[in-house]
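Standup notes, structure subgroup. Blocker cleared on the magnesium ion input:
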Amino acid sequence: MSDTKLIEVKDLAKHFEVRAQGAREDKALLKAVDGVSLDICEGEILGIVGESGCGKSTLGKTVLRLQEKTSGQVLYRGEDLFAMGRVDMKEMTKNIQMIFQDPYSSLNPRKKVAQIIGQPLRIHNAGTPAEQITRIDHLMDEVGLNPKFKRRYPHQFSGGQRQRIGIARALALGPEFIVCDEAVSALDVSVQAQILNLLLDLQVRHGFTYMFISHDLAVVEFIATRILVMYLGRVVEIASKDELVNQHVHPYTKALFEAFPVTDPRARKGKKQIVMGDVPSPIHPPTGCHFHPRCPYAEPRCREQYPPLREISPGHSVACWVV
Ligand SMILES: Nc1ncnc2c1ncn2[C@@H]1O[C@H](COP(=O)(O)OP(=O)(O)OP(=O)(O)O)[C@@H](O)[C@H]1O
Ligand SMILES: [Mg+2]
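Run returned:
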């Protein structure tokens, strides 16, 4: 891993206008991502965790400019993605790619595997038709699929194999940065391990940089080099994997680890159980620190002011008034 910053996200926000439930005419603002700043260095695997609805996918899609931002900046090798015109952005999609959750719905059922994997090559006129066929064979081989199955349709493959097809398609143009959004969440545990190992192998072979999104702490812990914890659109804690796993301090991170199933129930003995409750609506987030209504340590100021993200040790930052 190098110290070169590949991605810099500065105070990024993505708000959606939605109809407020029960309100007759009022439109409400849903702050799915609300002021997120982060850097990702070349070769790094940044894991993003948090409960459902906390804004992980929105962050991933906005970082790749698959949707427009509300405010803030995303720099790729120092270049502002949102300032790019259509032609430059099309060129940029060679470098940045996304692997989606659902290997069932993200592949067109009417297209053969070779057409699916070759689609980015055709869109970008990458090579002659003969070169494209060679490239498709190579990509299938690289993700552990037999190229002789390239004339099959997605439904003729298992879930794990379909995810391999999705990965091959993401690799087609030789990207540098890949956002994996719940890339193994739809798969059986044993198949999850195979796909995670494939992603790690590819990372070592090509020096990829990943943003790896998952609601599953075990998956993120397995693959990430650094972990960022999100809650209702904001970063609550970020640290290297080892520090976050062993020395997390934010009450929300603690709650996530408490809720994390352990194989040996004795390991839980003596640990304080935090009652989680439900995630509040991001349309009307709690005042102050968004986590305060669920936090066993909340103090009066937690209800009033949002705590800034501050560094508590090198590379370890937390947004909490209490710790
Ligand atoms: N296009 C959209 N229009 C309106 N609201 C949206 C849109 N996309 C996402 N949201 C809302 O933004 C919030 C964050 O959604 P997001 O999908 O980013 O969460 P997530 O952390 O990825 O959740 P999950 O773990 O379930 O995938 C949710 O409240 C969601 O309903
Ligand atoms: Mg999601």
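Discussed briefly. The first strand starts at residue 5 and ends at 19.
Next: hand off to the docking folks.
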